[in-house]
Please model this.
Amino acid sequence: MSISRRSARRSVRILGVAAASAAVVLGLSGSASACVIGDFKAEAKCDAAKGVIVVTDTDASGTPATISLFRTNNGGVEKQIGQQEVKGSAQGTSVTFSEKWKPNATYRVHVTASPYVDEDIAGGLTTPAATCTSESPTPAPSASPKPTPSAPAQSATPTPTASASSSAPAGTVGNVPSPAAGDSNLAETGASSNTGLIAGIAGALVVVGGGAVYFGMRRRGARGNG
Model:
């Protein structure tokens, strides 16, 4: 059984359409997995007190790329900060540039991933308004409690001690001498409470002795005259 020309042409046409469709599908899937500039992101961060700029590549195809970082100075003059190689991944692969960035500074990030990408990250990079610092905030001074006024201390009147009273001069302790002191003074001088009686007896003896002497002298004179 032979195939007609019409059937053969129809079969070739169908095969051509299927091949074209397959090529379109493969082309779209290849474009979806290729590296694009949207796979790259740049951020200004702080590593402790040190400023850094981090560029992350989320290209799932893992196409090698070169990241070039430029700082835009006053007047539009650029200075290249550095250049690093990166191979992206679905989870994201990052490269870090040590840069002591200033607040509100602008940077240009260029990506080269041949043959897919050779352009800057859209919008560039602007740093935050605050710099990195390791200084902790100074605590506010706490209000100290006001001192409570205390009553003035009263001076205590000193109490005379026994040693002070015993060291006073003799004759000044007490107004009346003790009996023991009086007795000892009389014993030392030989006087007693019978001094008047003794004096009277002594006077009488003197008178008696004088009279005896007088009468004796007269008796002797009378004998001599006789």
Remarks:
- Helices lie at 5-33, 162-166, 179-189, 195-225.
